[in-house]
Amino acid sequence: MPNRIRLEDRECPLSTTVRHVGEWWTLLILHDAFDGYTRFDQFQQSLGISTSMLTARLKTLVGDGLLERRPYQTNPVRHEYVLTDLGRSLRPVIVALAAWGNRRLDPQDRSMILIDAETGQESEPIVVDARTGKPLDDSDAYVFSAGPAASNAMRARYTELERQRRTRGSDRHPDAS
């Protein structure tokens, strides 16, 4: 995949993550891997993807450390593609994306839902703060800030955003000092 990341975004974790998993086929291959698919022909049949595109995407996923390519047959040699720990750690992201899509559909229009494997009950995934358990969907309650390794440009960005938040906050609450 060509490097589409802007120079100024190289330190942004969102930009670098999108570089690894933001391509259409990549997300669908990972989804199939979470469903237990490991073999080239399984991915190809499930997705209807061309051989060349699947080969390229699998090579990228292996190169990025999300899948491991390992032989499962010796004569002729055939390989399977197995999720690594890093790859498995993306499952909550895929689940959250699917849940976001489903929340915009009427229940009868959902082609895929997440269920509890033991009870069969539909799950309603949300992303929460591990410390407090509070949902992270409130952009006023949870904001990004410059981290310890932030460049001067990144620090300036978040200093300005914090200044704007304070200005908006004081505009909403004129009595607050």
Shape: globular
Helix count? Answer: 7
How are the strands ordered across the major sheet? Answer: 1-2
Q: Beta-strand level of the residues, as a percent range?
A: 5-15%
Query: Could you spell the SSE succession in H and E letters?
Result: HHHHEEHHH
Question: Structural class, judged by helices and strands?
Answer: mainly alpha
Task: Sketch the major β-sheet.
Answer: 2 strands, antiparallel
Q: For the CA atoms, what is the radius of gyration?
A: 21 Å
Helix content: 40-55%
Give the end-to-end Cα distance, rounded to a whole number of Å: 51 Å
Number of strands: 2
Low-confidence stretches: none
Rounded mean pLDDT is 87
Structure description:
By secondary structure, the protein is mainly alpha-helical. It has helices spanning 13-21, 24-34, 40-47, 51-63, 85-88, 91-103, 152-172, and strands spanning 67-74, 77-83. The chain starts with 12 loop residues before the first helix and ends in a 5-residue tail after the last helix.
